[in-house]
Amino acid sequence: MDISALPARERILLTAHDLFYADGIRATGIDRVIAASGVTKVTFYRHFPSKDDLVREFLDHRHAQWMAWFVDALGRRGAHDRAGDAGALPLLADVMAEWFADPVFRGCAFINSVAEVGGSVEGAAERAREHKREMVEVIAGLLPAASPAGMALAQAAALGVDGAIVKAQMGGAAMAHEAVCDLRRLLEALAAVPAPAR
Question: Does 171 map to a domain?
Fold first, then answer.
């Protein structure tokens, strides 16, 4: 996508998104973002008074982008049509396999950002928690009617997804394949857990 015709603020944000995700937040300096987005320092600081402001906007943008992709990817596999059937749960492994095969995959931006900047960027950890909470909600929507047990199952599945993401990030197609296979086994086991008696 050619971003050169976009307004300056959007160019800065999209450039920062790609650089922060590919190379890390700490490794990407403001001067690099400015040069790559083709703006002046004055323009940059008019839109983002500090790098922390840019990091927060990056996380907000990444959240919206990733969640839209996640819901769409589940839909393309028929997960939404099977909502309420725990058998839809293993489809999460197929969704992760698609993401892990993306040439720009570098793990979860939220796990990475917490590891990189932790509490040093105000609001970063809160955004990561909100991202994970929304991911759990989407997963819970695949399960039989909401119940405390259903939410616990969704949280367990989400933990498995996060574990697979970290394992896949360790490198190479073989590791990513192994992560997907491990996740599929876990999800199949969770899907086989009997629903609680009503």
Answer: yes
What confidence tens digit (pLDDT) does each residue in 59-97 have?
999 999 999 999 999 999 998 788 777 778 999 999 999
In-domain check, residue 146: yes
Note whether 61 and 85 are same-domain residues. Answer: yes
Q: What are phi and psi of 84, to 5 degrees?
A: 95, -10
What pTM was computed for the model?
A: 0.91
Mean pLDDT is lowest, of 34-38, 46-50, 89-93, 145-149, for 145-149
How many angstroms separate the CA atoms of 84 and 140, rounded? Answer: 9
Instruction: Give the tens place of pLDDT for each residue, 111-153.
Output: 999 999 988 999 999 999 999 999 999 999 888 765 667 889 9
CATH code of the domain covering residue 1 = 1.10.10.60
CA distance 85 to 91: 11
Task: Out of 33, 49, 65, pick the residue that ends a domain.
Answer: 49
- Structure tokens that stand for 27 in this block: 């490794």
The size of the chain, in residues, is: 198
Residue 113: which CATH number? Answer: 1.10.357.10
Provide the residue range defining the domain that includes 109.
53-191
- 36 and 79 co-located in one domain: no
